[in-house]
Amino acid sequence: MKLPRSAPGRRVALVVAALTVLAPGVQLIATGTGAAGVRDDCAGVPWMDRSKSPERRARALLAASTLDQKLRWLDEHSANDPARTTFTTAAPRELPPGEFVPVTFTMPPQVPCTPAIQYTDAPSAIAGAGAGVTVFPANVSLSSSWDRALAYEKGVAMGHEAWRKQRNVLLGPGIAGGRDPRSGRTSEYLGEDPVLSGLMAGAYSRGVGANDAEPVQAQLKHFVANEQETDRNNSSSNVDGRTLREIYTLPYEIAIDRGDVGSVMCSYNQVNHDWACGSQQLLGQILKREIGFDGWVVSDFGARHYLTDDPPSLKAGLDQELNAWRYWTPMAIKEQIAHGRLSEADVDAAAYRIVRAHIASGLFDVPRLSAPDADVSTPQSQALARRLAEQGSVLLKNDGALPLSRSVRKIAVIGPTAANTPATGDIDASSVCLHTAPNIPCTAKAPLDAITARAQAGGATVSYADGTDLAAAAATAAAADVAVVFGHYREGEFADRPNISLDAGGDALIAAVTAANPRTVVVLQTGGPVLMPWIGSVRSVLEVWYAGEEMGPAIASLLWGDTAPSGKLTHSFPRSEADLPTAGDPRRYPGTFSDGSVVRPPGNTEPRQVEYGEGLRVGYRWYAAQDIEPLFPFGHGLTYTTFAYDRLRVTAHRDLRVSFRLTNTGRRAGTETAQVYVELPPSANEPSKRLLGWEKVTLRPGESRTVRLTLSAADLEDLHLLQYWNTGTGRWTTARGVHQVSVGTSFDTSLRGRFVIR
Question: Confidence band (pLDDT; 50, 70, 90) for 11?
């Protein structure tokens, strides 16, 4: 949700008007438990009058509410269970950090005709709902499709499954800047470029809220500069104001502008020594005023946001505490009101933002299901999961081994994650179905089964080795025409990876297989960039990420070319960890303590200080600025044909138009994601060119097409495509002078053009 513009580059603030009182004679009729939704006897209640705007309805509800009923909106458990009156929580009071005492108290029930609401974590499947949900590929795979329509489809499917499981607020999608690929949640996010990740998140959120008959609200997370799991709940991301806007808050702004975002979750960490969930600069200034977000802000679970901070987190811009009351008990808020540090108007403003967003999303108007469906995974959603896995996979290298041809009669499949029979360490295909998310069961269709079925259909045979015995794996490979070896690493919430090398001796396994059979294809199942010391010895490399429950059929289809790979990287792949923007400086990662150490001393509770000293040089900007050649650049991805670019033309008036000819120069039909970049004038002091836009084009063999990318004046301004954050004026500023445009198949572009802004 975003406020209307009042003038170019500015947004007006929405002011909560005086609350409307109930009209004489209006009777409020209770709805029993209130847990099942809204009943017909609520028709006379003013906040259920659909002819009125969400703003008027929200004001009417709050006008009929006591202070305690308004306070109920400020906590997830209380807000979402209208009839519940007794709460047991853990209040910190004056105890040392991390120590809590149980407190039980009662609250009056919520005003009648308010819905029951249930949140759900949903990185790529509905969490905590048990079996019967579809496990889609991770969002790193989604972003690698570079397909906003596909992101929308995934959002629609996630919204539907959430609704059928009785959930109506989806805690996702997630956005992060990809600052360090060792971050344990890299696979949950949408890549290192703020424009691409913002547009994909916006499309995803529109899909979540697309079905008015099954209203579900999307939430962006984790705002902001939450770029590592190490000490995520007790560290400070120290980042300059320009980098904060251009890299870390920009994708949120774009997603809010182009999406359907009801709420934003603030993160655990501090930013520049202020807790993100209590930062006036982040929440009040950047999110609500600069970006113009008029939805509601909720804390991550247990994120620090003491009411005793200055200013109190409620006044700074936080609206709701996730899960049970902890820091924001009604007693604590009332105490702050009594001391004059908060006012009832602060409570009104927060409650209003929550209620208005719920009404605008339809949560008040469509009764929630009385019980969750046992199985919400449909054939359509399973087909989508497969399509997502296929289109998000990236062919990194291909020296003629793929697609597998009819001449291949004997195929060796090697590696523990190829099968659903766990080898040593209890690792199998389902282990890399999704990142190690809690409460999401996944039984993947194993690649070995799908490859075997596809091979047998063509008269070929398959042999398998789990890879725990290198000699046996080499022997299996040597006896085959081609070896398909699987390499993986696992990651997830709560911990960063120690490195970005393959797990379980994967590098040694690939080396042994390659030595035995030079015709080796590597299939990678990772959450982000991975090192490849064996890259010169293998024929082909296919990155499939965490490909969800349909991984097996998708991988088999890609290997034989039934579906041609079309994904492109949304992370730069380094040649070594020494090339990372954070490498060699512990202050940048993992951050240091006051004594200079990188390991938290026993009993130490001080925030870890993480210095974002690389500034704007994140992802591909770093490699370009430092003149470091990555192993595979941002935007890289091959397919089973080739493309040529020529005839570039750039025109700039009020809008910007880039056109060029794209030709399929191979013998197969194929899809290319043609990318357009722009380098701002030197006065902007940017580290490199930046992504301007892209077009996905499918061409027959020998076919040529003129591709046109048109960016309107609104696109250029809303997405800040030609702007930089001017720290002197505190505003986005359009760079004047010569702009260099480049077009090609990846960040390493082939065509050059220019235009001038005077």
Answer: very low
Q: Are residues 243 and 353 in the same domain?
A: yes
In the numeric block, the tokens 């240091």 are attached to: 592
Q: What's the rounded Cα separation, in Å, for the pair 598 and 593?
A: 6
Instruction: At 208, list the tokens.
Output: 């979540």
C-alpha distances (whole Å) from 373 to each of 126, 135, 163, 384, 439 are 13, 16, 9, 20, 17
Alpha helices in 104-245 (DSSP H): 139-144, 148-164, 194-208, 241-243
Q: Tokens at residue 63, please? A: 């006008």
DSSP-assigned states of every residue in 570-622: SSPBPSSGGGSTTTT-TTTTT-B-TTS-SSPPTT--SPEEEE-TTTT--THHH
Could you tell me whether strands 731-734 and 723-726 are parallel, antiparallel, or unpaired per DSSP bridges? Answer: antiparallel
Over residues 298-348, the pLDDT tens digits come to: 999 989 788 888 889 999 999 999 999 888 899 999 999 999 999 999 999
Which amino acid is residue 36, in one-letter code? A
Counting Cα atoms < 13 Å in the Cβ hemisphere of 24 gives: 0
Instruction: Tell me if 385 is assigned to some domain.
Output: no
CA distance 464 to 416: 10
CATH label of the domain that carries residue 694: 2.60.40.10
Are 188 and 66 members of one domain? yes
Q: Are residues 286 and 418 in the same domain?
A: no
Alpha-carbon span 295 to 353, nearest angstrom: 6
- Residue 410 in tokens: 């004997």
Distance of CA 194 to the CA centre of its chain: 11
Cβ distance 522 to 510 under 8 Å?
yes
Range of the domain at 398: 393-560
Please identify which residue in the block is written with the tokens 């198949």.
745
Distance CA 696, CA 275 (A): 41
**How far, rounded to the nearest angstrom, does the alpha carbon of residue 210 sit from its chain's CA centroid?**
19
As a whole number of angstroms, the distance between CA 670 and CA 756 comes to 35
Identify whether residues 352 and 418 lie together within a single domain. Answer: no
What is the structure's pLDDT at 13?
A: 30
412 with 329, same domain: the answer is: no
What is the identity of the amino acid at 175?
Answer: I
**Cα separation, 233 vs 300, whole angstroms:** 10
320 with 463, same domain? no
User: Do 208 and 302 lie in a common domain?
Assistant: yes
**Does 31 score more than 70 pLDDT?**
no
Residue 655 to residue 657: CA distance in whole angstroms: 7
Taking phi over 0 as left and psi of -120 to 50 as alpha, with beta for the rest, 362 belongs to left
Position 595, amino acid: D
CA dist., res. 66 & res. 367, Å (int): 25
Among 70, 173, 166, residue whose Cα is nearest residue 118: 166
For the segment 671-680, what is each residue's pLDDT rounded down to a tens digit? Answer: 999 999 999 9
Please give the Cα distance from 363 to 338 (Å, whole number).
34
Q: Which residue has the tokens 């993992």?
A: 590
Q: Which residues pair with 610 in a beta bridge?
A: 237
Domain termination residue (choose one: 560, 586, 602):
560
What is the 3 state secondary structure string of 464-492? EECCCCHHHHHHHHHCCCEEEEEEECCCE
- Give how many domains the chain has, as a whole number: 3
300 is catalytic: yes
Instruction: Look up tokens 């009604």; give the residue.
Output: 330
Q: Which of 360, 376, 407 is at the close of a domain?
A: 360
Active-site residue (options: 231, 257, 294, 300):
300
DSSP class of 48: G
Mean pLDDT along residues 83-97: 73
* Distance, CA of 670 to CA of 672 (rounded, Å): 7
